Amino acid sequence: MQPFSVFVRWRPLPPDASDPTELTRDYEPHPANNRISISLPSQSRQHRPWKSSHAFTQIFEASDTNRTVFDSVVAPTLPLVLTGGTSNVFAYGHSGSGKSHTIIGYDYEHTEHYGLCLAAAQHLLDALHAINLNTNTNTTDETSHLDLGLGLRMYELRGNEAFDLLNGHSKCHIREGGDGKTHLRGETEVLAHGRVRVRPITTKACWSLDEFLAHLRGGLALRATGTSTVHELSSRTHAVLEVEVVSRALLAARETVVERESEFVPVAKRATDVYLEESLKGLVKNEAGKYVPNPGYRVDQARIDEAEARKAEFLGYVEDAVRTVEEVMRMAGHACLGGKLVLVDLAGSEFYHDKSIAAVPRLKPSPQEQRTGRQINTDLLALKEVIRARAARAARIPYRSSPLTMVLREHFQGTTGGDEKGGSCSRMILTASPALGQAAATVNTLKYGNLVGMVDLGK
Questions:
Q1: Which of 209, 331, 195 is nearest to 269 (CA)?
Q2: Which residues bind ATP (predicted)?
Q3: Are strands 424-432 and 4-10 parallel, antiparallel or unpaired?
Q4: How far is 260 from 262, CA to CA, in rounded Å?
Q5: To the nearest 10°, the Cα dihedral for 439, 443, 449, 455?
Q6: Which one, out of 11, 136, 353, 390, has a CA that is 20 to 30 A from the CA of 441?
Q7: 200 neighbors 184 (Cβ within 8 angstroms)
Q8: Angle between helices 367-391 and 403-412 (to 10 degrees)
């Protein structure tokens, strides 16, 4: 299994297309990867064909269904998920090229047309059901805390902000923790007795495909859309769907960590307050305005020690809760617990000033829409540079270049490690339109994928 592969998917022309003319495209197969050649129209400033490198693992025609794409792109990576690893799937392309149709799909009735997310959920749930039956041969308790299911997280990134699609589109904060990982946190809740609770992004537990679909549709209904250079209902955010193998025991253990952390906050704050209070009482200003030891007060070290001891006690509760999570993972009956499939429906790339093609009718973006488009392009450039830096084994990986690459950092870890247990692999699907009027955007999409696809070959 290649650590990183790039695929191309051509979308069909819409039935109401004003110009049914398609780009001329040729493929050159190769033992490793394919090459694409695009002949630009005669009105183009660049008359010579554009030709890619041998960068593309497979090319899907407009007649290929979502099921065909799933079988070739996602299905081969799911054994990695079922051994505790991470599979990342990106859909990249300009607005209207079929990214959301590929990742999400719009037909929830026919399995042939399921988006990659729903098809993968069905495959994983079937596999987990078989594992549960094999593990629980001596019990009929379907609510066992050890039963395996899927946890779904959905959020969208817009500029420097993140929004939880499974929690009423609430705003989240992107934070880098002391563990070196990037965390998505919800709004801070102030509770009784000085407790402060900061929940992670919402995880919806799903034990059946119907549950999964209900949560998926609920989250999608909250996703933001806007005007792009192609149409008025373009996805103007990056949508990230994380599908994780979970158990009730794991979810309960994680919830306990959140509660222990909330109990720790007021105790830690009091320890700090006591230390500062005693330290300030032990100092006094002299005639020169400098702080010197206060001869009239003796710092109550016992009071400080008592507060610090209580802080250490509650910190121990937090650490115990974290160890419980680790223990649940370690003692799970199957290695798949914690395995993830991460699907990223990237916002449509924009090319506002591309003049390589004669003018075609398009919606004129407002200044705000142009700013949004530039931010999207900045995120996509950062993603490309992260992929290239990882492939080159660079000493510094520019994850902090954008919020998108920051939140994906954990999922990228181990990408170069291939298919070993706990590793990660990535796939990118380039969605492209054969429409003559979108030739410039299509070639730019293929150029992006060409650069990304060649990194795994060391070229």
A1: 195
A2: 93-100
A3: parallel
A4: 5
A5: 170
A6: 390
A7: yes
A8: 30
Binding residues: 93-100
Annotated binding residues for ATP, written as ranges, equal 93-100
CB 257 within 8 A of CB 314: no
Is the CB of residue 346 less than 8 Å from the CB of residue 380? yes
Cα separation, 99 vs 93, in Å, equals 7
- Cα–Cα dist 449/293, whole Å: 66
In three-state secondary structure terms, 273 is helix
- For residues 410 and 94, what is the distance between their CA atoms, to the nearest angstrom? 26
For residue 169, give both structure tokens: 């589109």
Predicted confidence pLDDT, tens digits, the chain (459 residues): 666 899 999 999 877 666 677 888 888 887 778 999 888 766 555 556 788 988 899 999 999 999 999 999 999 999 999 999 999 999 999 888 899 999 998 888 888 889 999 999 999 999 999 999 887 655 555 447 789 999 999 999 987 889 999 999 999 988 887 777 788 888 888 888 778 888 889 999 999 999 999 999 999 998 876 544 444 444 578 999 999 999 999 999 999 999 999 999 999 999 999 999 999 999 999 888 899 999 999 999 999 999 999 999 999 999 999 999 999 999 888 889 999 999 999 987 665 444 444 444 455 667 777 777 778 888 888 998 988 888 778 888 899 888 899 999 888 875 444 444 568 899 999 999 998 888 888 998 999 999 888 765 444
